[in-house]
């Protein structure tokens, strides 16, 4: 892995200038690396963050992907990391003209990271630096506690798999006046003297550093100050959150356990609390990307297509570009290609806004010809897609704009699957061309972890009571027992889970229709023994 050469860097800077002229927000400082396929395989399990903490599952993934690569060699084009400064990786097999196209794609990703409100709490963070501090912290624990560190990571990550964090993201964006407590007061008066055992001179140095930031960066001084504190003291956030108790607030399972677990709050187990905090904060950082996959890839594809086609450096490579671009952005008839759907949705929205088709005058039209000819020439399509890039997530992006016009324009449909018993093969067929059905298929494919909440009335030091809000899908039963055992360890006592399971109604089902029964069940774990009872 090495930095791109000066000539390629000059090309990248030229791409930035062209992108800025179209309104994209790109910082002056970015880092670009050339990597091999082997580098890609090694970094992929760490979400391309070289400094992320070590974990045995990552090693397994590297071995698995190495074996797959031997059978099916492929060349991933690029990866970009949402950090400060932004870091991107480019495959060493990419020709120069292709890197230009990819530069535009990456620049659009960076613009999305820097402006979509779901990423707001990451705008000032050097995540690579924080990840390095977290990695060193975990390694220091490994040298002292050995394999128990990996047990805690395993338990925390199993809980992380059933935690959505969506409601936790906005809470991180509160203004100083809205935040409970005062971070600076806690840092100066409690954390430095009692946790760090800092001298008076060291405390004064931190105060002076903060005052200098106030003078130069008034609006973001506190955020910048504590971003640096996170790198030096990874345990700070967890300790501050413990200092400020929110008994009436609705928090995710990870946060609740970290704050209120009698076991983790024991003095000798504070290190475990720090490990759980690292897992949670890492997931929080990546949660926005999981909620904006279609939009993010669609935005990047829209701009690489728009900017590269207008770039004079495309001359002589039109055919190669068309081939690669079609491979990236072609619509999958079976399955979902986020690049394809996101790209076409942004084009569709831009055209609709330009022609004024979001107004009621158009929406009330039922005649197909009149709808096709409708055009108020408003010319505000570009402004509209920039606003959507800023304020939307995948769900409202798809839920609002997947219209019948969109489905018809791109000949989209929902595919069904059935068994041909005579030939012994599965047949794929067009199941529906309705916008509502296609929209539901897209929504069903999105990231949607289960909603599991803590029942505060039934929870105490001896019993953690969890309730799964059933949304038509049951929990994955093979993982329930192991996850509950991990929860029991971190809580220090019994854990109870109330959920709903689906089974076939044998009595009322027939060849033409399969009916189901929904059973309310209660799982309980005590002393690593899991039991299940029907409610």
The secondary-structure class comes to alpha+beta
What is the residue-mean pLDDT, rounded to a whole number?
A: 88
What percent of the residues sit in helical stretches (DSSP H or I)? 40-55%
Largest sheet: 5 strands, mixed
The residue ranges in which pLDDT falls below 50 over 5 or more consecutive positions are: 172-181
Determine the number of helices (DSSP H or I, runs of at least 4 residues).
23
Give the overall form. globular
> Strand order within the widest sheet?
7-8-9-10-11
Whole-angstrom Rg: 26 Å
Strand proportion, as a percent range, falls in 5-15%
**Number of β-strand runs:** 11
Distance between the termini: 57 Å
- Summed up, the domain count is 4
What does this structure look like?
The chain has 23 helices and 11 strands. A 5-stranded mixed β-sheet has the order 7-8-9-10-11, with helices on one face. A 4-stranded mixed β-sheet has the order 1-2-4-3. The chain has a two-stranded antiparallel ribbon with strand order 5-6. A hairpin with a 5-residue loop joins strand 3 and strand 4 (87-91). It folds into 4 domains: 2-116, no CATH class; 127-291, no CATH class; 330-444, no CATH class; 451-534, no CATH class. The protein is α+β, with helices and mostly antiparallel strands and 535 residues long. Helix 2 (37-43) runs antiparallel to helix 3, helix 4 crosses helix 14 and helix 8 packs across helix 11 (236-243). It is 53% helix and 13% strand. It is globular, with a radius of gyration of 26 Å. Residues 172-181 have low confidence and may be disordered.
């Amino acid at each position: 892995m090495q930095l791109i050469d000066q000539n390629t860097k000059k090309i990248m800077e030229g791409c930035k200038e062209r992108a800025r002229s179209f309104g994209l927000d790109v910082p002056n400082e970015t880092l670009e690396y050339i990597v091999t396929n082997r580098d890609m395989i090694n970094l992929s399990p760490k979400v391309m963050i070289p400094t992320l903490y070590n974990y045995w599952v990552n090693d397994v993934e590297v071995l698995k992907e190495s074996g797959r690569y031997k059978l099916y060699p492929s060349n991933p084009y690029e990866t970009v990391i949402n950090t400060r400064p932004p870091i991107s990786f480019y495959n060493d097999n990419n020709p120069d003209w292709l890197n230009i196209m990819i530069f535009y794609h990456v620049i659009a990703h960076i613009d999305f990271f820097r402006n979509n409100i779901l990423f707001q709490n990451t705008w000032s963070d050097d995540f690579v630096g924080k990840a390095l501090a977290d990695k060193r912290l975990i390694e220091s624990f490994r040298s002292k506690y050995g394999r128990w560190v990996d047990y805690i990571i395993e338990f925390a990550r199993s809980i992380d798999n059933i935690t959505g964090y969506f409601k936790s993201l906005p809470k991180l964006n509160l203004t100083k006046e809205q935040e409970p407590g005062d971070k600076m007061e806690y840092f100066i008066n409690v954390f430095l003297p009692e946790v760090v055992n800092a001298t008076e001179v060291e405390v004064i140095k931190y105060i002076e550093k903060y005052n200098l930031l106030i003078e130069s960066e008034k609006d973001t001084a506190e955020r910048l100050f504590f971003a640096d504190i996170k790198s030096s003291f990874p345990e700070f956030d967890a300790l501050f959150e413990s200092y400020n108790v929110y008994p009436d607030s609705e928090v995710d399972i990870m946060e609740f356990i970290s704050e209120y677990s009698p076991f983790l709050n024991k003095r000798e187990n504070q290190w475990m609390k720090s490990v759980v905090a690292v897992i949670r904060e890492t997931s929080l950082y990546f949660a926005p990307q999981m909620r904006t996959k279609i939009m993010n890839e669609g935005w990047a594809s829209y701009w690489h297509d728009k900017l590269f086609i207008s770039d004079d450096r495309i001359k002589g490579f039109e055919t190669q570009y068309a081939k690669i671009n079609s491979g990236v952005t072609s619509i999958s008839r079976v399955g979902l290609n986020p690049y394809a759907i996101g790209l076409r949705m942004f084009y569709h929205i831009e055209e609709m806004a330009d022609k004024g088709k979001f107004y009621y005058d158009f929406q009330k039209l039922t005649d197909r010809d009149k709808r096709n000819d409708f055009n108020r020439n408003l010319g505000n399509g570009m402004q509209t897609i920039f606003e959507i890039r800023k304020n939307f997530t995948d769900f409202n992006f798809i839920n609002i704009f997947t219209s019948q016009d969109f489905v018809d324009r791109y000949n989209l449909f929902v595919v069904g699957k059935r068994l041909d018993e005579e030939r012994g093969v599965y047949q794929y067929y067009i199941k529906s061309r309705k916008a509502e059905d296609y929209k539901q298929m897209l929504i069903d494919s999105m990231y949607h972890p289960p909603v599991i909440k803590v029942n505060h009335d039934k929870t105490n030091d001896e019993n953690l009571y969890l309730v799964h809000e059933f949304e038509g899908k049951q929990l994955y039963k093979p993982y329930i027992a192991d996850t509950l055992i991990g929860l029991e360890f971190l809580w220090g006592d019994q854990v109870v889970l109330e959920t709903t399971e689906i089974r076939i109604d044998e009595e009322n089902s027939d060849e033409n229709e399969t009916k189901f029964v929904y059973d309310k069940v209660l799982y309980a774990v005590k002393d690593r023994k899991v039991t299940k009872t029907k409610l």
